[in-house]
């Protein structure tokens, strides 16, 4: 079956392969089998439907020339009805053939004119795209006829064009030879500009990237399955040999495979059951940048639908119960149903589709108030992509990307238009008041679409005067080479196109911290967990009993305070009335009693001690109040008040509790019940600082130790024995 022919290097251009041999070394058996299958495919040609599909793609993306320089007319009428794409492989072959014809459009037009067979009287201008596409394939087969082609799917227009070209194949071959001599080229590939030839070389050796779906299988299970299938895990891409793979250095859930293993990998159960999924690495880098910024229970907004794989990857890295992933731009009902089916197969349950475009969504939308991070993947020139066919098919990009890649550059007016669109989308994302970070990612190599857009947006003041301004955040991804470290000095993450990856640019914009706001413990732990700093530590929720106790205290506290205030005022009122008629220093007695009461109320910890007051003279005309009853009433009132203030203090400390610090094991002495000699316990106890009582250390709740009850001051001191 044919593959992208321009990525194949003929025997005359073997020198161009020397730069990529050290990157990948395959076994001789594998390379020979590839060459034999490729040479067989080159002689066979394609099915008629693939030619027609490629002609339709070429008709929409071919380079239009000024009126005074037009040599070949393509017409404006529609081509014959386009059959539906049968599968992804059929789709890929059509795009590859159209892209190859587009890169050699000028050469193929010159061959038609120089051979004298154009203009073609018997073929209309509407079929010129089909003529150019089939002419490229004919010269690629050394002007040999097709054979072993299924006639059941034959198309009349394709058969007519083929017969016409084959009847003039001698003239066409001579015109091609003159063209090569004119350009001093050993083969037709050498006529292309150097930038396009380098891009073809990179595409031919670019490895495959696949991310693991944690909702379907763990990384350990995936490694085990690959080992059973005969794959060997190696340290890096440079160690690839035969059936091997390695882990990516930037994303811990991404695996890398040699490019020639794609057909074998797609047949594995890991790929058929969506446990592993192929996708360009740039999208995984963007998703992991978002993950590093997330707090617990945060929602994410994906500004453009793009590839459903990006959305599924984002969902797989978030909490399915507490976080949501909103996706903009899903307009048709049929597309929505299709996507929901795909996400269900992936076991992604927290994705919500929005029909409006991102630019039309109001920042004050109620359903987006929990969104804290926006992932912005705007349309870009894409000149950092080495394998445009895969990128178009997987990321659902526009086929016009092929037009720019076939020229190796982008027109200035189009570049300015793209940069303006990117600026408007970025500033719109900055207007969401609740959002705390924006991740901006492109596959462009132009600063006009990258640094210039980001810096312009930061100085635009799009977030408004009331909200905290945005700033550039240093890269949240690991820096694995010198070039990444150099670009990180400007707070950008950038990868240049190479033999191991496509080009990528990522900028992370975060709001400046409001000094009046405090960071919760949940947020700190969530960010630490996202960076892998809390592996093996259980971030469990507090027990339900503690939650119920807190709620009960909050509900009963106001009522208790009001009741105690009433009791205290009644006691003071009674004492004042009782002592009015005394004859011996009544003012002094009242003063002493009032002072004692106020001093007792001011105590918050420890036991309550009432000062002894002067005994007033009894008044026979008034009822006698028992001293014991008065003291017990006051003690009860003050005891309740103390408990209320204590619960308030504990509750406040629980809310502002800092990050738990687990200390090393401590050997605690205890008293032997058989004697007075102290011994050392063989058990290890873990302790943490508790904010409720400063300076005290208690057993850590993370280890589920039970705190011993407090004893009264009258009871003898005992050591607590936590239960493990």
Automatic annotation (TrEMBL):
Q: Where is the SAM-dependent MTase RsmB/NOP-type domain?
A: 198-512
User: Keywords in UniProt for this one?
Assistant: Methyltransferase, RNA-binding, S-adenosyl-L-methionine, Transferase
Record SUPFAM superfamilies = S-adenosyl-L-methionine-dependent methyltransferases (SSF53335)
Cite the binding residues for S-adenosyl-L-methionine.
357
Give the Pfam families listed for this entry.
Answer: Methyltr_RsmB-F, NSUN5_fdxn-like
Q: Which GO terms describe its biological process?
A: methylation
GO molecular-function terms, A-Z: methyltransferase activity; RNA binding
The protein, known as: NOP2/Sun RNA methyltransferase family member 7
């Amino acid at each position: 079956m044919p593959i992208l022919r321009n990525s194949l290097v003929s025997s005359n251009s073997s020198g161009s392969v020397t730069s990529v041999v050290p990157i990948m070394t395959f076994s001789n058996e594998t390379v020979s089998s590839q060459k034999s299958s490729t040479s067989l495919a080159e002689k066979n040609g394609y099915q008629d439907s693939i030619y027609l599909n490629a002609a339709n793609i070429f008709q929409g993306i071919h380079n239009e020339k000024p009126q005074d320089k037009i040599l070949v007319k393509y017409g404006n009428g529609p081509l014959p009805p386009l059959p539906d794409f049968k599968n992804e492989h059929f789709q890929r072959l059509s795009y590859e053939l159209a892209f190859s014809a587009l890169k050699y459009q000028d050469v193929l037009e010159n061959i038609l004119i120089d051979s004298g067979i154009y203009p073609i009287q018997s073929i209309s201008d509407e079929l010129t795209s089909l003529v150019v596409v089939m002419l490229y394939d004919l010269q690629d087969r050394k002007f040999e006829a097709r054979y072993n082609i299924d006639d059941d799917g034959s198309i009349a227009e394709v058969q007519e064009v083929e017969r016409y070209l084959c009847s003039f194949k001698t003239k066409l071959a001579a015109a091609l030879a003159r063209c090569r001599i004119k350009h001093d080229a050993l083969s037709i590939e050498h006529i292309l500009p150097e930038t396009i030839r380098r891009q073809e070389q990179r595409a031919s050796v670019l490895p495959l990237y696949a991310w693991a779906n944690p909702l379907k299988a763990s990384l350990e299970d995936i490694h085990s399955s690959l080992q059973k299938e005969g794959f060997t895990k190696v340290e890096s891409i440079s160690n690839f040999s035969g059936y091997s793979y390695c882990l990516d250095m930037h994303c811990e859930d991404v695996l890398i495979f040699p490019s020639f293993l794609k057909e074998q990998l797609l047949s594995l159960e890991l790929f058929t059951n969506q446990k592993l999924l192929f996708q360009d690495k740039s999208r995984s880098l963007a998703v992991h940048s978002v993950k590093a910024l997330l707090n617990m229970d945060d929602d994410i907004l994906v500004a453009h639908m793009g590839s459903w794989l990006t959305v599924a990857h984002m969902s797989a890295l978030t909490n399915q119960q507490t976080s949501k992933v909103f996706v903009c731009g899903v307009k048709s009902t049929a597309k929505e149903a299709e996507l929901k089916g795909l996400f269900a197969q992936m076991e992604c349950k927290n994705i919500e589709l929005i029909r409006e475009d991102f630019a039309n969504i109001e920042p004050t939308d109620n359903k987006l108030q929990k969104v804290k991070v926006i992932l912005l993947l705007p349309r870009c020139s894409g000149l950092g992509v080495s394998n445009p066919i895969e990128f178009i098919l997987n990321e659902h990009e526009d086929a016009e990307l092929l037009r720019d890649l076939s020229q190796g550059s982008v027109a200035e007016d189009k570049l300015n238009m793209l940069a303006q669109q990117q600026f408007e989308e970025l500033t719109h994302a900055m207007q969401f008041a609740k959002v705390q970070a924006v991740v901006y990612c492109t596959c462009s190599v132009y600063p006009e679409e990258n640094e210039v857009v980001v810096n312009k947006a930061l100085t635009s003041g799009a977030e408004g005067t009331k909200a905290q301004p945005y700033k550039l955040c240093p890269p949240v991804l690991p820096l694995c080479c010198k070039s990444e470290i150099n670009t990180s000095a400007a707070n950008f993450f950038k990868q240049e196109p190479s033999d191991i990856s496509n080009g990528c640019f990522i900028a992370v914009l975060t709001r400046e911290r409001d000094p009046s706001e405090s960071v919760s413990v949940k947020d700190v732990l969530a960010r630490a967990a996202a960076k892998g700093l809390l592996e093996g530590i259980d971030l469990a929720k507090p027990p339900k009993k503690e939650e119920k106790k807190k709620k009960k205290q909050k509900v009963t506290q106001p009522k208790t305070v009001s009741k105690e205030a009433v009791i205290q005022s009644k006691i003071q009122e009674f004492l004042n009335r009782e002592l009015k008629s005394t004859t011996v220093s009544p003012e002094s007695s009242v003063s002493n009693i009032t002072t004692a009461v106020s001093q007792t109320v001011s105590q918050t910890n420890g036991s309550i001690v009432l000062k002894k007051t002067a005994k007033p003279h009894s008044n026979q005309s008034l009822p006698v109040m028992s001293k014991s009853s008065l003291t017990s009433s006051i003690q009860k009132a003050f005891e309740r008040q103390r408990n209320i203030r204590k619960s308030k203090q504990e509750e406040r400390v629980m809310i502002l509790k800092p990050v738990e610090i687990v200390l090393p094991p401590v050997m605690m002495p205890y008293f032997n019940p058989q004697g007075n000699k102290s011994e050392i316990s063989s058990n290890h106890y873990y302790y943490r600082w508790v904010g409720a009582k400063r300076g005290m250390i208690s057993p850590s709740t993370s280890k589920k130790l039970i705190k011993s009850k407090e004893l009264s001051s009258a009871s003898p001191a005992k050591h607590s024995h936590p239960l493990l």
